[in-house]
Amino acid sequence: MHHEPLSILMSRAAFEEIGPGIGQRLGERPWRPVLLGECDEAARQAVNIALITRDVTGRSTKFVVGDTLAACYEVLRASTALRWVHTHSAGADRPIYAELRARGVAVSTSSGANAPIVAQSAIAGILALTRRFPALARAQREHRWAPLLAEAIPPDLEGQCAVVVGWGPAGRRIAELLQVLGVRVKVVRHQAVSAGPDFPTVTYDGLRQTLHDAQWLVLVCPLSERTRGLVDARTLAALPRGAHLVNVARGEVIDEAALIDALRSGHLAGAHLDVFTREPLEPESPLWDLPNVILTPHSAGHSQGNAGRVCGIFLDNLQAWAQGRALRNAVQ
Prior knowledge:
Blueprint: E1 6-10, H1 12-26, E2 31-35, H2 41-45, E3 49-52, H3 54-57, H4 67-78, E4 84-87, H5 95-102, E5 106-108, H6 115-130, H7 133-141, E6 161-165, H8 169-180, E7 184-189, E8 201-203, E9 216-219, H9 233-238, E10 243-247, H10 256-265, E11 268-273, E12 293-295, H11 306-322
Helix pairs in contact: 1-11, 6-8
């Protein structure tokens, strides 16, 4: 019999959305909400579990932390009773999570919640680059009729080769969609385990050796010490001239200066970039104005349905945590 209620930190919006669901998952176990921005010092120090939803993170990045997220971090650091934190994001590479894990706090992510949306964004970038949409958009702004003929005629996407780096839920979905489009897919992943009979597979160490016939390098891997700087000048040089790159992973996976050089020289024909070494991307970055770049502001995984999927993962994990079972997407 549990007499002391679990204290769960969350935003008011999250409480209004899933408060009843928490009670259902915990059964007879008592609990109380600790609402961010509405709790006193005693409640802050007693927090056992924290749910960080998108409304808490807002427009914050790893480099620019907004007021609401900063207030959340203060509670996480102040609570000596904290045992577990769940985040809406698919990755846990913000410094706060390493800090918490060093204290023995469990951290879990919402990996998989936005995987279909990330995959759609990556495929949209590939299709837009294949069909020369950046050049067509420039022609439209200039009121210039520029049909895709002669030297502008695009190659067929079917029959091309893509190397997908990362084999989580989003990477697997991207590979499936590429196959539907007739693209051959190779997989680069952390583990030396085959991704399946249709997917030649190597580990990160073998990345460069897979690129000799790749028209597409698609990055969808987590950021780790192994993937930080994985795509450097030598890796880019291993791609055939005229290849394209899509990054929906993390900006730090790429040497950004080397990427800019490859795009300027024409070695890379184009790129769809959703993430950057520093975010927000500095106004003076050359990437804003490169004609062969589709640039989006770390939005590849955003959609209206994500909040519900994140809450579903949290509620499943809450029930598992209360029953002493392993957490889904626990950071190792």
